[in-house]
Amino acid sequence: MSLFKKIFSSQKKETLDKGLEKTKSSFFSKLGKAVAGKSKVDDDVLDNLEEVLVSSDVGVDTTLKIIKRIEARVSRDKYVGTDELNTILREEIAGLLSETNTTDDIDLQIPKGKKPYVIMVVGVNGVGKTTTIGKLAYRFKNQGLKVVLGAADTFRAAAIDQLQVWADRVDVPIVKQQMGSDPASVAFDTLSSAVKQDADVVIIDTAGRLHNKVNLMNELTKVKRVMQKVVDDTPHEVLLVLDGSTGQNAFEQAKQFTKATEVTALAITKLDGTAKGGVVIGISDQFKIPVKYIGVGEGIEDLQAFNKHEFVDSFFKI
Known about the structure:
Blueprint: H1 10-19, H2 21-34, H3 43-55, H4 60-77, H5 85-100, E1 117-122, H6 129-142, E2 147-151, H7 157-170, E3 174-175, H8 183-196, E4 201-205, H9 216-227, E5 237-243, H10 248-260, E6 265-269, H11 279-287, E7 291-295, E8 303-305, H12 308-315
Parallel strand pairs: 1-4, 1-5, 2-3, 2-4, 5-6, 6-7
Antiparallel strand pairs: 7-8
C-alpha cells in the first residue's frame, strides 16, 4: 500500500485537512497559474514553480533544494508532464520532511527512564505558547500521566494568570510565584514539587521576551542550570513554539532562539487561520529540528502530533 493511501485516524485527519485548507487553496491556485498552457515541465515551469514555493512561505533555500531535485528528475526522465508535477512535488516534499522528522508516533510517548520528563517551552509572546502548554498538559493527562506546570514567565502577570487558567481547565497542579520573581527559582520549585508528587511530566513556561533581548540566552541558561540541581540532564526537551501565520517572521524567530538555546523540537501553531502553512516545510528543512506538534484549530484537541505523511497528504489532497 502506498504511504499516501495509508488509513489515518479519521477525526484527526479531518481536522488537519480543514486546518490546511487555506494553505492548500492558495498553493494550488498559484500552481495552476504556473503551469497554465504548459504540458511539459520545462525551465519556464520550474521558474514559475520556484516563485510559487517562495510565495507560499516554503523559504528560498528549501525552495531551491526542491527545484534542484525536480530538475534532476526531469533530466533523468527526459519528459515530465505538468500533470505529474503534483505527484512529484508531493514525493520530494515528503522526502525532505523525512530527513528531519523520523517519527510518526501518533501519541508521542514519554521516554522510559526519564521521570519526571521535563519540557522547557520557549517562544515570543503571542505565538500561542501558553495555549500550547495547556493543550500539551491535556494530551499527557489523557495518556494517564501526572503533569505539573511551572509558571516561569514571571515578567508578565498575564502569562502567570493565563497558565493558571489552563491548569484549572485541565485540572493539573501549577507552581508559581509573584510577577517579577526569579524565573530560575520558579523552575527549581516546580521540579522539586514534581519530584515530591512523583509526577511524570513537567512543563516549564519561560519568558516570551522578544528575541532581540541580549540577556535571553543568559536567562535560559540559568533556568537550565538551576533545574539540573534537582533533576540531572534537564530539560529533556526544549520546545520552541512558532506562529505559522507569521510566515517568514517565524524563520527569524527560529534563527534567534536556536542561537539563544539548544532547541530540540518545534511546535508550529495557528496553521488553520493562514495560507502560510508552507512554513512548516521550510523550517523543518532549514533548522533540522523535528516539528513535533502543529496547531490546526482552537479546540483543546487541535494541537496534533506532527505526522509527515498525514501533513503531506492533507497539503496535496485535491
